[in-house]
């Protein structure tokens, strides 16, 4: 006995359902494989990108000389090319760069404006692009700071003063206080007599000398604030945001002197007079 029309139709329907299920399963497998392939491609692209880029942190207080070495060590650009770009004013048109004196006897004209930060950059990049990136970062910070600057100092003088604060201050709470000391001494026409301004020319920007000797204070350099009145000829490092804020908004007080204390934390003892300063040093030496 053959199948009835109804039974044939029912069997055909089952076959179609089975076929549809197989098609759906095949599509699902294809989609899954496509998704896996896509993820593999994306992972490969990310890996390739990671191999081509590097994250570099330029700490606050780094000089152009130290930054150049770090970029070279990470295969970003040659130190020589970076330093050449850091001495080139003509390639950039920021308004604040007009405050850099044309005849400034400085190591690198863009020193102080190479903002310290963490940068993700391509390996084997044109040094000018790296410098431009750092200047652009500084420009972003300066847009706000310039509105707060009521000191009467030019942007270059602010950055120079901030660079000194950066090398002197070791704890956040003292940035504005040390800045206030510098302003007080400038107001009284006193020489700043700050060791960092001697160490910068003495170590050629490397700061790899820990102690300043009396003979070092005689170094013949426009940066030396033991021999020259006022601020150093130019920035002695690239200051971070805390030092820049301190230079724009110094703490108001009557201190003229300071020296490191015994805590080993980099904090200082501040004095209003030289006799108080000497007494403090004698007490600490006991």
UniProtKB/TrEMBL annotation:
Alphabetic keyword roster: Cell membrane, Cell wall biogenesis/degradation, Lyase, Membrane, Transmembrane, Transmembrane helix
Function per UniProt: Functions as a peptidoglycan terminase that cleaves nascent peptidoglycan strands endolytically to terminate their elongation.
Organism of origin: Anaerostipes hominis
Catalytically driven reaction(s): a peptidoglycan chain = a peptidoglycan chain with N-acetyl-1,6-anhydromuramyl-[peptide] at the reducing end + a peptidoglycan chain with N-acetylglucosamine at the non-reducing end
Record's keyword annotation contains Membrane: yes
Stretch forming the signal peptide: none
Organism classification: Bacteria, Bacillati, Bacillota, Clostridia, Lachnospirales
Cited NCBIfam families: endolytic transglycosylase MltG
Site (Important for catalytic activity): 168
Keyword DNA damage: no
Protein known as: Endolytic murein transglycosylase
Xref: Pfam families: YceG (PF02618)
